[in-house]
Write a structure and sequence with these properties.
The chain has 260 residues and is mainly alpha-helical. It is built from nine helices and two strands. The chain has one domain (19-258). The protein has a two-stranded antiparallel sheet. The longest helix has 28 residues, at 141-168. The two termini are 24 Å apart.
C-alpha cells in the first residue's frame, strides 16, 4: 500500500497555487476591458497630452518594468498587481506599436510581420527552455519571465493588428471589432467541440482579445468623422479603470493551479 503522506505530498506538488489567475469568464472580461483601457490610456498620453509616441512608450515602459518586477518577486497571486501589469503591457503595447508603425514609417504590414516573428520566437524559446508554454506549468521565475515577454509582444501585436484591420481595410472600428469578436467565437467553439490543444487556444484567445480591445477603444475616442464616438480619452479611461477595479473586487479572483 502506498504511503498516505507521500500521496498527500504529491498531490500538493501537483496542485500548487500559481501567481497567475484562474482562467475563468471573469479573467476574459477583465482582460478585454484592460486591453480597451490600454488603447484609450495610451492615446490619452500620446495624443491628448501631445507627448508623442516615443515619450509615451518610455513612460509606460518604466511603469511596466516596475510592475512586472513586483509581480515576479511576489510569492503568491495578488489580483491588483497582476492586472496592473496586464494594463501596463497594453498601454506600452499601444504606444510602441504606434511608434513603430507611424513614427518610424514601417507601416502596419511591416509592424505586424515583425511582431509576429518576435512573438513566435518568444514562444519557441520558452518551449525550448522549459518544455512547455502552458500557463498552468509556470512555477519558476524563468518561466514567468517568458510569460510576460510573450504577453508584451502579443499586446503590441494586437494593437498593430487592430489598427491595420480598422484603418486600412475599410472595416472601421466596429467592423474590426466584429471580425475579432467572430474569431473569439470560433476559438470558443473549438474549445468545446474539438480536441485542439488548449494551450494553443489560450494563446490565440489572448492575442485576439487585444485587437478587439484596441478597435473598441478607438471607437470610443476617435473623432466622429473617422467613425468613432469622440468621447474624452480621459473619461473613457477613468470609466474603464473603475470597471476593472469593480470586476477585481466583485468577481472571483483565485489563483490558478500549476503542475509542480
Amino acid at each position: 500500500m502506498l504511503d498516505r503522506t507521500a500521496l498527500r505530498d504529491n498531490d500538493l506538488v501537483e496542485n500548487t497555487s500559481s501567481k497567475l489567475p484562474e482562467l475563468t469568464l471573469a479573467f476574459w472580461i477583465i482582460k478585454i476591458a484592460a486591453t480597451t483601457l490600454g488603447e484609450t490610456g495610451g492615446d490619452a498620453v500620446t495624443m491628448s497630452m501631445n507627448l508623442g509616441y516615443l515619450v509615451g512608450t518610455v513612460i509606460f515602459a518604466v511603469i511596466f518594468l516596475a510592475a512586472v518586477a513586483g509581480q515576479v518577486k511576489a510569492e503568491r497571486f495578488h489580483p491588483l498587481l497582476y492586472w496592473t501589469v496586464i494594463v501596463a503591457t497594453t498601454t506600452v503595447g499601444t504606444t510602441l506599436a504606434d511608434f513603430v508603425d507611424r513614427s518610424l514609417g514601417i507601416g502596419y504590414p511591416g509592424g505586424v510581420s515583425i511582431l509576429v516573428a518576435l512573438l513566435a520566437l518568444s514562444l519557441a524559446l520558452w518551449r525550448f527552455s522549459t518544455g512547455t508554454v502552458a500557463v498552468t506549468s509556470i512555477h519558476s521565475r524563468k518561466a514567468e519571465t517568458f510569460y510576460w515577454v510573450t504577453i508584451m509582444f502579443s499586446q503590441t501585436l494586437g494593437t498593430a493588428l487592430g489598427d491595420w484591420m480598422a484603418d486600412t481595410n475599410g472595416l472601421g472600428y466596429l467592423g474590426g471589432a466584429a471580425v475579432f469578436g467572430a474569431g473569439l467565437v470560433l476559438i470558443i467553439a473549438a474549445y468545446y467541440w474539438t480536441s485542439m490543444s488548449r494551450v494553443a487556444l489560450f494563446w490565440l484567445a489572448f492575442i485576439l482579445t487585444r485587437p478587439l480591445g484596441a478597435t473598441v477603444g478607438d471607437f470610443l475616442d476617435k473623432p466622429l468623422n473617422q467613425g468613432g464616438l469622440e468621447l474624452s480619452r480621459y473619461t473613457a479611461s477613468a470609466v474603464l479603470v473603475v470597471f476593472i477595479l469593480g470586476c477585481i473586487w466583485l468577481l472571483p479572483q483565485r489563483a490558478g493551479k500549476h503542475h509542480g
